[in-house]
Design a protein that fits this description.
alpha/beta
């Protein structure tokens, strides 16, 4: 099932496109700003991007070259001037559709780009295809390998450190300034994800899917509650400020 990233700040248009494409056998993920779209692109694997140009955060024009290096980009824009089209097509976009547009036409143009991509991939060797992995798949695979047949495997000692924190995945123990911090399994996995990627911002969806190992289906307060509990446990050591809230996006280490 081809997976498409829709980056469109108009919620009604975004939902309309998603409903139509999913009704024709596509899997879609939605973003409503340039910043959110860039973050999802770095964590997920997609087959094609539908990109609006006038976006909050990061403008669509700035994202075209980044996305086009790895997969087809179809620009959806109310900008109908020739110079706008020339600019984004020169930057690497495969197609440009002016708003308003018909959904059946959009579907056909997507199919054309995916067929072209498939023909190009046929020219690559199997080994080359096997090297196309995303960071999320690597994290999931590492977690699966760590838990598979644990009673018969000998694990290498792996200890993660960040400032005054130390996390030991093999013993599921954490210390802050040398003192043991009692964490639940989910709290430990949340900190493990953050400490392994201290400069990256993680959305609630990414954190939930890593720590719980299942799909994040709806917005709720689960992650906020767990982050609050972690901070409370770390307050005694004065390291609760290490966890930074990135408003509108998620969490990272400071």
């Amino acid at each position: 099932m081809p997976k498409i990233l829709i980056i469109e700040d108009d919620a009604q248009n975004n939902q309309m496109i998603q409903d139509y494409l999913e009704g024709h056998g596509y899997s879609c993920m939605q973003a409503y700003s340039g910043s959110e779209g860039k973050l999802l692109f770095s964590m997920e694997e997609f087959d094609l991007v539908l990109l609006d140009l006038m976006l909050p955060g990061i403008a669509g024009e700035e994202l075209v070259a980044l996305f086009a290096e790895k997969l087809p980009v179809i620009v959806l824009s109310a900008k109908s001037r020739l110079d706008s089209k020339v600019e984004v097509l020169s930057a690497g976009a495969e197609d440009y559709i002016c708003k308003p547009f018909d959904l059946p036409e959009l579907l056909v143009r997507i199919q054309v780009q995916l067929r072209r991509r498939d023909r190009q991939r046929e020219n690559f060797t199997a080994s080359g295809l096997n090297q196309e992995n995303t960071e999320k798949k690597q994290l999931v695979r590492e977690k699966e390998e760590k838990t598979e047949n644990a009673e018969n495997l000998e694990y290498l000692q792996r200890v993660y450190t960040y400032k005054s924190w130390t996390l030991n995945p093999d013993t599921q123990e954490m210390t802050a300034k040398g003192e043991l911090v009692e964490l639940t399994r989910h709290e430990f996995l949340i900190l493990e994800l953050l400490i392994r990627n201290p400069k990256r911002v993680f959305t609630k969806q990414m954190i939930y899917e890593y720590a719980w190992g299942e799909e994040y289906l709806a917005e709720d307060k689960t992650i906020n509650v767990h982050i609050s509990n972690i901070r409370a446990k770390l307050k005694r050591s004065g390291t609760d400020t290490y966890i930074q809230t990135v408003w509108g996006m998620g969490f990272k280490l400071s």
